[in-house]
């Protein structure tokens, strides 16, 4: 339902019917009618643009500019149609209640109410009974349309937070289950394989050298040690950070710190080793943003670039130079270098800081690349 809410909001354009009725009935003709049609069309165009795409823009001036434009057009439509109707301002009230913060919305309601009162008096050229009734209904109209829009925004926001909380709980439950499996796998199999290895070593000492049984026991010991190594690798893989876990932790930490976070995830499934390295990058970068940047907005973008992986963490905080000298960043550089990756960290031209990590397409380690170059 939320996905189609922006399209349902377009149905509010029917509130412009008084002006359209005046135009279609021929009450407004000639050049004045053309201006009225242009004003109604521009009003509808701005509202449609904001509902379909403008609301997603991060610039806080977009809703204010849209409201100011719609208020001016509402005044123009009222004067061109010569109808003292409040319908032109109802959409403005809805937009103000849904798009602005509570404090700004209340200020906008007061300004819109004052304009509605002034328009009614000017268009009616005095305080007639109709104007007085309209003035009396102004406050209930603001409370009904503006308050309903604010309530709807609160419900939509609460629903989005509830869904995010459910997804976070599910991810945490998955992580806890992974940790439990890793712990049990290590305790059970590790203990049993260790005993098998010790018993095998004891058996090789008791059996005569060079016998078939001795060779078989030694093969069993080799398989046991290999199984122990594989178990350790599997357990360490389960305990390594994952992208889902680190992104969830980053959202929670940024929200607690009052920093707005945008995440762009454009990569698919990754092997465990590279996913763990990217998880460490996210953890270290977000820790630096929260502790040292003084930022109000942060952006994490994961993408495929030329077949390789790239992760960018940008913030709009203080513009301070930062070299790869800290222990955290140095550790990231070593982790990335082991997979043939690179790490860049630099201040942005105007304000803020950016950390960028890249991994090659094949994810070759440093040792593998050295061996390949030596063969060539």
Structure, described:
There is one protein chain. With 376 residues, the chain is of the alpha+beta class. The protein has two domains: 1-239; 243-375, 2-Layer Sandwich (Heat Shock Protein 90). The chain contains twelve helices and five strands. A five-stranded mixed beta sheet has the order 1-2-3-5-4, covered by helices on one side. A hairpin with a 2-residue loop joins strand 2 and strand 3. The chain is elongated. The model is unreliable at 363-376 (pLDDT under 50).
What string, H for helix and E for strand, traces the elements in order? HHHHHHHHHEHEEHEEH
Number of strands: 5
Number of helical regions: 12
How many structural units, i.e. domains? 2
Indicate the proportion of strand residues: 5-15%
* Terminal CA distance: 60 Å
Q: Give unreliable regions as ranges.
A: 363-376
Rg on CA atoms, Å: 33 Å
Give average pLDDT, whole number.
77
Main sheet record: 5 strands, mixed
> Share of helix among residues?
55-70%
Structure summarized in a few sentences:
The protein has twelve helices and five strands.
Attribute tags:
alpha+beta; disordered C terminus; 5-stranded mixed β-sheet; Heat Shock Protein 90; 376 residues; 12 helices
